[in-house]
Design brief:
Largest sheet: 4 strands, antiparallel
Structural class: mainly beta
Shape: globular
Order of helices and strands: EEEEEEEEEEEE
Strand content: 35-45%
Strand order of the largest sheet: 7-10-1-12
Number of helices: 0
């Protein structure tokens, strides 16, 4: 946990080189999914002992759509959905952060002290119990100074 007076970019990312449809073939359809679930956050103690209300930063993904506080970068490459207290990102095409290529990032800017509690999982879209298997598949949570 740290203090970032100029803002911090908090995001969920997924990227893929070639999709895996579960049938053993490869293609550019990006059939892998990254899912994140979070725990609600209400308050945090600062180094000065003051308690801050963090409910404005919290997102339990309980609604039917992604909250407007989030922004999707490269939205054409991903189907983002909210349901069952989870955000799911399913790539609709190959998207990779490499050289001049751009991946997908779902992000929001936050300031001040914060805590993130999340479960993040990348898996085959066709077989959710299995991890992606072909080429490059990544998914994760990122906090960075813009």
């Amino acid at each position: 946990m740290g203090r970032y007076p100029y803002g911090l970019l908090l995001g969920l990312t997924c990227l893929v080189g070639c999709g895996d449809d579960g049938g053993g073939g490869t293609g550019g359809d990006g059939n892998s999914t990254t899912t994140a679930t979070t725990a609600p956050t209400t308050a945090s103690s600062t180094a000065t002992g003051m308690t801050e209300d963090l409910s404005g930063l919290s997102d339990t993904f309980d609604g039917s759509a992604l909250d407007s506080s989030w922004t999707i970068f490269n939205e054409a490459a991903v189907d983002a959905s909210v349901g069952e207290s989870a955000l799911s990102l399913e790539l609709t095409q190959a998207a990779l952060w490499f050289q001049a290529s751009q991946g997908v990032l779902v992000h929001k800017t936050v300031t001040g002290d914060f805590r993130v509690t999340a479960n993040v999982r990348a898996h085959k879209t066709s077989m959710p119990a299995e991890p992606p298997t072909n080429n490059i598949h990544l998914g994760g949570l990122m906090a960075r100074d813009p």
